[in-house]
Specification:
Elements (H helix, E strand, L loop, with lengths): L12 E3 L5 E3 L3 E6 L6 E5 L6 E2 L6 E2 L1 H10 L4 E7 L4 E9 L2 E6 L5 E6 L4 E6 L8 E5 L4 E2 L3 E3 L5 E6 L1 E2 L2 H7 L4 H12 L13 E7 L8 E8 L8 E6 L5 E5 L6 E3 L3
Antiparallel strand pairs: 1-2, 3-4, 4-7, 5-6, 7-8, 9-10, 10-11, 11-12, 13-16, 14-15, 15-17, 17-18, 19-20, 20-21
C-alpha cells in the first residue's frame, strides 16, 4: 500500500553563532542541492505576515511592500541539513531575499535581492568557498524567482514588476535623514493605500559566469502591460528546454520557448 503524503514542519527557527535563536519569518523560495540533499531557502524579511481583515487570507504582498518602503536589508539565505535537522545562516543583508537556485555540481547557490535588483552568488566549494558576491545588476524590473540550467551556464530570472522611476527615486533619496523621514511617512499609510504593482511580466536570461566569461544578461522578455501574463514570480526550465512561468495574477502556467 502506498503511504499517504505527510506534511512535516522541519524548521521554524535556528540558532545563531552567538547562541541566540532567530525565527524563520518569511520563508520564500527553495532549492535542493543535488549532491548533498541540503535544502537552500530564502527568508525574505523579518516583517511577519498577517491576515487581511477584509478577506481573512494571509497577505503575502503587504510585508514585501513594507520591506521595500522601509529600506532595511533583513533578507537572508539559509540552509537546512536533513541529516542533522539543523539550519544555518549562509548570507544576510538582502533587500527582500527571494529566488534560490543551486548549480548541478552544488558548487554555488544564487539568489535574488528583489528591491536591489541584484543576483547574488554564494560559493559553496572551490577557491572562493564561503564568499558572497553580486554577479548581476541593472535589470528593468524587480527580481523574484530564479532557476539555473543543469545543461548550460544559463540562469533564468523572473521579474514580477517594473522598476518604475518613482520607486527608483525613493531608493535614491539623499540625505539619509530625509529618506528615513519619507519612508516613515509612507509606512504609516493604511494597507489599502500602499502602492500596487503595475501590470507587467518579465523574464531575464542570464549567463552566470564561468572560467571563460563574466556574468552577463543575454536576453530579456517583457510583457510591459501584463496583457498575456503578469506578476511572474516563478520560472523553471523544463526537460524540453522551454521555460515554465508561474504568476501570482494569472490562473495558468506560462510557457516561453526562447530558443
Amino acid at each position: 500500500q502506498t503511504p499517504k503524503p505527510v506534511v512535516e514542519l522541519v524548521a521554524s527557527r535556528f540558532q545563531l553563532e552567538d547562541g541566540s535563536w532567530s525565527d524563520v519569518t518569511y520563508a520564500d523560495d527553495v532549492d535542493i542541492g543535488p549532491r548533498t540533499g541540503h535544502v537552500y531557502f530564502s527568508d525574505a524579511t523579518d516583517i511577519k505576515l498577517d491576515r487581511d481583515l477584509k478577506t481573512g487570507k494571509w497577505d503575502i504582498w503587504y510585508p514585501s511592500k513594507l520591506e521595500g518602503i522601509r529600506g532595511l536589508k533583513s533578507g537572508r539565505l539559509l540552509r537546512y541539513k536533513p541529516e542533522t535537522g539543523e539550519v544555518d545562516l549562509i548570507a544576510s543583508g538582502a533587500h527582500f531575499a527571494n529566488g534560490v537556485a543551486v548549480d548541478a555540481q552544488e558548487s554555488f547557490v544564487v539568489f535574488t535581492s528583489t528591491f536591489e535588483g541584484k543576483v547574488m552568488k554564494y560559493h559553496l566549494t572551490g577557491e572562493k568557498e564561503g564568499q558572497l558576491e553580486t554577479i548581476l545588476t541593472d535589470f528593468p524590473g524587480f527580481l523574484d524567482g530564479i532557476d539555473c540550467s543543469f545543461d548550460s551556464s544559463l540562469c533564468f530570472v523572473a521579474m514580477p514588476a517594473p522598476a518604475t522611476p518613482e520607486l527608483k527615486a525613493l531608493f535614491a533619496i539623499r540625505p539619509a535623514i530625509l529618506s528615513r523621514l519619507i519612508r516613515a511617512i509612507l509606512m504609516l499609510l493604511p494597507r489599502g493605500l500602499t502602492p500596487d504593482a503595475k501590470p507587467y511580466g518579465g523574464v531575464a536570461i542570464v549567463h552566470r559566469g564561468d572560467e571563460f566569461s563574466k556574468p552577463s544578461v543575454k536576453q530579456i522578455y517583457q510583457d510591459p502591460t501584463g496583457i498575456d501574463i503578469s506578476v511572474i514570480t516563478g520560472v523553471t526550465e523544463g526537460p524540453d528546454g522551454k521555460l515554465y512561468l508561474g504568476s501570482l495574477h494569472n490562473d495558468f502556467i506560462g510557457v516561453l520557448d526562447y530558443q
